[in-house]
Amino acid sequence: MKDEDLLKDEKLEKVLSPHPLSFMKYQSLCIFLIVWGVLVFWLVTFSEYRGMIAIHEWTPIILWGVVLIVAGIAASLVAVRWSIFFLYLGIFLGGVGLMLWQNWISTAGSFIPVYMIAMSILGFLLVEWYRRSHKYIISNQRLIFKGGITTKEERTLRYDKISDLNAKQGIIGQIFGFGTIIPISQSGFGLGSDKAEAGGGIMLGEKKAKLFGFFGGGKEVQTPRTRSYYELHGVYPYKEVKKLVEQMVQGSVITPYQKEQVAFQKEQVDIQKQMRDLLKMQSESKGDAKEEGSEET
Amino acid sequence: MEGSPIDIVIFAPLAVILGVLLFWFIQLLIIEFEKYLLSKIRQNHEPLCRFTNFLGILFQSVCHALGYTVTKSGISDFYISVNYGRVAPKRKKTGIFEWISNSFLFIGPFFLPAILLLIFLFFSKVTFEVMTPSQLLEVKYTFGGQINTFGSSLYSFSTSFFHFFLNIDLFHPGQFGFMLLLIFLGMGMRPSYIGEKKHEKVDMFYDLKNIWSLIRHKPMYILLLFLISYNLFYISLIFNQNWYVALFSIFGWLSIIAIVSLIVSTMILLLIKTTDEIPGKIKLLPYLALSIFYVLMRAIFFYYPVENSNMISLAVMIISTILITYLLLRLKTNKFKSKRDIKSIKKKGKGGTDEG
Question: How many CB atoms are closer than 10 A to CB B291?
Answer without folding.
Answer: 12
